[in-house]
Amino acid sequence: MVRKTNKKVKPLWKKLTIVLATLIFITSSALAIFFKTDVFANQRDLWVQTAMNTSNHKWLARSFLSENEINTILAKYKVENTSKSNSEAVSLSTASPKISTSSTDENNTSIKEISGSTYKGYVVTIKDPSTVKLVNTLTSSGGGTKLSDTVANNSYKVALNAAGFDFDRASESTGDQALDSLTIIDGKLLYGDKDTSYQMIGMTSEGKLVLGDYTYQEAIDAGIDDAISFGPYLLVNGEKQVTEKSTGGYQPRTAIGQAADGTFFFVVIEGRSSSSVGATLYDLQEIMENLGAVNATNLDGGGSSEMYYDGELVNNLSNGKERELPNAFVVSK
């Protein structure tokens, strides 16, 4: 006669508890290895830069790292711009850009789609630099203007967002960030302190892009008529400014550059979508160098990245809606 043995069967809740505890342990260990060690240092740094260069998703870094740890990572990739562009090196003649574009219209502008391993975007080539202007789009009440309204109200051929917002002072829908930075239009200081040196993106009356640190008076003496303060610069006198490939993380991007013959390039990169994650500042620098730019700078990216061409929105907006902007680069018809 065979005796029956009584096997104790663990209740279902105990099994689930063990499974859950195991998953928590594995996840916690993986997160600790990823964020707290250097095993995946490059991937961690890219994650942190991508998160911290957004307005609404900084928690993706702050949930796992202290502010000191985050700042240490960001400091490793800070772009130090110490040179000024040499305006004399730009001749303001017209020539074909290094990258072929679609057929150039009667206004000497053309548009082409570009792409990389993590991004897609668009470049507009403007052969006549005298048609490029920086315009102030702040209203008398301090709010900004949507780029679509700027285009519609002025019939611009091309329009591109320019300087950025301070989200600690302004809501996502207003442009009064400009009160914290510098804006010079037609030689007049609209915003900023006249004695403070700013990292400027300037335009001369003849259509030269000027990059460098200037006070208001120094800018005027250098022939700058219009300027904003933003960055970092990507190329100065043909010299690369960004050395690390992951600098800035993957973001929607906007940039402006100029070739030695005066040709302008407006670039917008889509991001934060399945079809286009975004570009790093290094990617943006490579794009501008391949186009033939000798001076180029990053402009405000993220949800502000926006381009209009012939009255139509060119790129998909990462936030799905327009922001009200403080200023823009435009091309007159």
Summarize the helix and strand pattern as letters: HHHHEEEEHEEEEEHEEEEEHEEEEE
Large-scale geometry: elongated
Number of domains: 2
Name the assembly state: single chain
The total of beta strands comes to 19
Helix content: 10-25%
Separation of the first and last Cα atoms = 102 Å
What is the count of DSSP helices, taking H or I runs of 4+ residues? 7
Stretches with pLDDT under 50, minimum 5 residues: 94-101, 167-179
Radius of gyration: 24 Å
* Structural class by helix and strand composition: alpha+beta
Mean pLDDT: 89
Main sheet specs:
7 strands, antiparallel
Strand content: 25-35%
Strand order of the largest sheet: 1-2-14-13-15-11-12
Could you describe the 3D structure shown?
The model is unreliable at 94-101 and 167-179 (pLDDT under 50). A hairpin with a 2-residue loop joins β6 (183-185) and β7. The protein contains seven helices and 19 strands. It is 23% helix and 26% strand. The protein has a seven-stranded antiparallel β-sheet with strand order 1-2-14-13-15-11-12, with helices on one face. The radius of gyration is 24 Å and the shape is elongated. It has two domains: 12-76, no CATH class; 87-331, no CATH class. It starts with 11 loop residues before the first helix and ends with a strand. The longest helix is centred in the first third of the chain and has 25 residues, at 12-36. The chain has 333 residues and is an alpha+beta fold. It holds the Pfam family NAGPA. InterPro entries: NAGPA (IPR018711). This is Phosphodiester glycosidase domain-containing protein.
